[in-house]
Amino acid sequence: MNRLLPPPTTVKAPRERFTGDVWLDMLATPQDGDQRTTVGRVRFAPGARTAWHSHARGQFLHVVAGVALMGGRNGEVLRAQAGETMYCPPGEEHWHGAAPEAFMEHLAISEGADEASESTVWLEHVTEESYRGSDGP
Predict the structure, then answer these.
(1) What is the pTM of this model?
(2) Is residue 68 within 8 Å of 61, Cβ to Cβ?
(3) What's residue 126's pLDDT?
(4) What whole-number distance in Å separates Cα of residue 107 and Cα of residue 52?
(5) Which residues, including other chains, have CB under 8 Å from residue 17's CB and lie 6 or more apart?
(6) What is each CA distance from 79 to 4, 42, 50, 129, in whole angstroms?
(7) What is the rounded end-to-end Cα distance, in angstroms, of the chain?
(8) What does the pLDDT look like over 49-107, one tens digit per residue?
(9) Among 29, 32, 47, which Cα is nearest to 112's?
(10) Which among 70, 74, 88, 137 would be 20 to 30 A from 128, CA to CA?
């Protein structure tokens, strides 16, 4: 049966997993059977970012507003504008966040692992050097 879901509650992202001020609204979570897809609206203050992490089944990040940065262990930092989508393959360690000059909002879309606790593996915080990349964001 079709249903209207209640509006999400905005939560402040935990400091153990994020640097700076970040807010999260879970827009879509599994509702039935073997569903695994989640969609979160994540808003980052200027310079805010995730810690290093990976996703068992990869992740899509669709930028809604501002400029998003995504970094990988190779030191490369990608920039995406509103309307663009970034993709991180399964198991690849990465981080993402706002450019230093403005707020940023993206939709984080991922699919959970068979074992929920293995869906996202959180690692250490991102250093300023990694955030800025070799040429700066």
Answers:
(1) 0.92
(2) yes
(3) 97
(4) 18
(5) 50, 51, 53, 122
(6) 35, 16, 15, 16
(7) 46
(8) 999 999 999 999 999 999 999 999 999 999 999 999 999 999 999 999 999 999 999 99
(9) 29
(10) 88
